[in-house]
Structures are given as C-alpha cells and as structure tokens.
C-alpha cells in the first residue's frame, strides 16, 4: 500500500501541467456547454441543433481570428487538402451523431457513443501499429461498462438507426485519431489547426442545416418564426464562447495525449454530469446507476494512474539516457599512464565542457 501511495505521489509530481490544464479546460467547457445548450433548447425553445452547431463553428473561427490578431498564436499556412479531411470528419461526427440520436433510443445511442473508445484502440492498432498496453486496455473495460450501466436506460434499435450509429462511431474515431496525428505531422498547434478546420467544418455542414432543422418559412415552428431577445441571444452567444473553448481544448488534449485518453476523459464527464443530475436535480438513483458511476470513476482513476506511471518511467529513462551520453566523453578518455598524463588533461577538458 505504501509503495502504491509513493508511486501515486511520484506520478502526480511528474505529470505534465500543460496536459492537465488542457484536460481541465475541456472538462469545464464541455460540462458548461451541456448546461447552456440545454438552457437554450429547453428554457428558450431554440430547438435547432444543427444550426446551433453551425454557429459554434463560426464563433470558433471568429474568436480564433481575434486571438491571432492580439498575438495569442501565430497563423501558419497548412495544406488545405489535409485540413479539409479533418474538417469533413468533424462535420460527419456532428451530423451522424444527431441522426443516431434521432433514429435510435437514448440507450442505444449512449452505448454506441461508448463504442468509440474500443474502436479507437482497434484502429490505432491495425492502421497505425500503435498498440495500447495491456494494463491500459484492462482499465478501459470498467470505464466503458460503467457508462453503459449508468446511461443506457432503454435499448431499442432499428436498421437505419444502427447504420447511422455505426457510421458515426467510425467517423468519430478516425476524426479523433486524425486530430492528433495531423498536429504532429504538420508541426502545428491546436489553435493553428482549428483556425483552418473551423470555417471548413462550417462550410461542410451548411447543406445539412435545412435538412436536419426546420427552415421552412411557412412552418410555424421554423427558425424564421423564432423570436430573438436579449435573454436567448445572450445564452446563444455564451454557447458560442464555450464551443470555442471546447473545440480548441479537444485538439489540445488529443495533441498532448491521445484519442483514447480524450475518450476516457469524455466518459468521466458523462458520469460527472449524470451524478450531478442525481445530486442537484433529484433524479432517482438506483443501484445500477450508482454502481455504474463508481465503476467508471474507478476505471478512469486507474487508467490515469497507469498513464502517469508510464510517462514518469519514460521521462526517467530519457533523463538517464541523456546523463549517460554526457558522461561518455569522460569514460572514453585515455588513462594518464598510457599517454604520459595526456589522458588526465583530456579528462579535465571533458569535465570542463560538461
């Protein structure tokens, strides 16, 4: 027990502060946007989800331009073809997720969302030859099962809904993996990449807006008949700011860790939101939901511990290797007896340089 406690302390001490900050930003902004989106749709009746997503992409682009203008980051020219693929994945993820929710029960929708995590693991192993350690794979089992136990309240499916759900899982998985690999291959930051993908995603999603939302001028429930006021506009603007933080933090988290780690963080957010629903909104808590939340939290904790432990050991190995390289010239010095004291002089020179 003492050894495990010492490892936990050492792992936390060696953790990357920037990665932790990116995850904290994603956690806070993601939970915040769930609340504000729900406020916009339920309290203010803005039930145009795809239109809201289009606004979020545009708000992200505008805020990124402002950030670049004030010197937060420098713009970088990126290949349009590669960034357009990632933007298409982002658009496909949003559209297919909405279609899956529309054509499936909430239970099946939640289960398929959870399937993104093992799908990412399989794709990375088969396509990118990136095999996850056995311990990390084992830690993901209670994470996924816990979310299913907590969120899957009903489970009904149909052929069309299942097709949308499966396509959504595949597109989302490739999109999340691509967000990390593209940052590394193009040597760009999350902000630089989002500056390209946000407007492209907005352009790609425009044709789907009138298909998925009610834009019929003759319909009494269309967006043209919606009454905008100070209250609902303020909430919508707030969702745009939070969407900017969410979109940027997604790339930050995936770029600094991995798509699997981002998915694990997402499952933690899901259970946190459900737990807050039980605590603050008096949602009935049953044994299955409570066990699911505890199972997910335990899996997330163990996965995080293993990731930090691995990162610490890699950092220690790299430090030891660097130290060994620095000491090599001294070890290679000639002995003073072999060359009339010349080896001693060379060793002093080596020590001085070190």
Q: Could you describe the 3D structure shown?
A:
- The chain is an all-alpha fold and 354 residues long.
- It has helices spanning 2-14, 17-43, 49-69, 80-103, 106-114, 116-127, 134-151, 159-186, 190-205, 209-212, 230-256, 259-280, 287-331, 342-353.
- The protein is globular.
- It starts with a helix and ends with a helix.
- Residues 11-15 and 335-354 have low confidence and may be disordered.
Topology, element by element:
Blueprint: H1 2-14, H2 17-43, H3 49-69, H4 80-103, H5 106-114, H6 116-127, H7 134-151, H8 159-186, H9 190-205, H10 209-212, H11 230-256, H12 259-280, H13 287-331, H14 342-353
Highlighted features:
single chain, disordered C terminus, 0% strand, 354 residues, mainly alpha
The helix/strand class is: mainly alpha
Report helical residue fraction: over 70%
* N- and C-termini, Cα separation: 41 Å
Q: Please give the count of helices.
A: 14
Order of helices and strands: HHHHHHHHHHHHHH
Instruction: Classify the beta-strand content into a percent band.
Output: under 5%
Tell me how many strands there are. Answer: 0
Shape summary:
globular
Largest sheet entry: none
Contiguous low-pLDDT stretches (5 residues minimum) are 11-15, 335-354
Radius of gyration, Cα only, in angstroms? 25 Å
Provide mean pLDDT, rounded: 79
Quick summary:
This protein is mainly alpha-helical. The protein contains 14 helices and no strands.
